[in-house]
Amino acid sequence: MSGPAKTRALYNGDCPVCSAEMCHYEAYADTKNLPLGFEDLNKIDLSDWGVTEDQATRLLHVIHDDKLLVGWDAFLALWSQMPRYQLVARIGGWPIVRPIASWGYKHIVARIIYERHLRRKARGLVGSS
């Protein structure tokens, strides 16, 4: 990638699901030389993002064009920057799809991933930054 990232994603590198997904996107972005950046919340100063560790582990956070997006909107912004996922971003942004997908991500998918993270953390399997 040349120049600063236009879009940056903040993810939990201690989460197997988050890490696998973001590493996949990062590898794709690298092969296409896309202006995307990926930051593991466990390896940076979260004050640069203006979020706490708990907020960052609950939902995906993306900075796109200097605007912080959270949850489904973060995915849509990230996907819209990658040619392979632009159709998914368009469909995910449709007025009938967006609220349902956003609710499902926040209240089902992200909640399950977050609760698994808390269990791994309680067992000492991840750092406690």
Explain how this protein is built.
The chain is of the alpha+beta class. The protein has one domain (7-122). 50% of the residues lie in helices and 14% in strands. The chain is built from 5 helices and 4 strands, in the order βαβαββααα. Helix 1 (16-32) links the parallel strand 1 (7-11) and strand 2 (36-40). Helix 3 runs antiparallel to helix 4 (86-92). It is globular and about 40 Å long.
Given the helix and strand composition, which structural class is it? Answer: alpha+beta
Strand content: 5-15%
Helix percentage range:
40-55%
Strands ordered across the widest β-sheet: 2-1-3-4
Shape: globular
Distance between the termini: 29 Å
For the largest beta-sheet, the strand count, sense and barrel status come to: 4 strands, mixed
pLDDT < 50 runs, ≥5 residues: none
Order of helices and strands: EHEHEEHHH
Number of helices: 5
Mean pLDDT: 94
By DSSP, the count of extended strands is 4
Rg, alpha carbons: 14 Å
The total domain count is 1
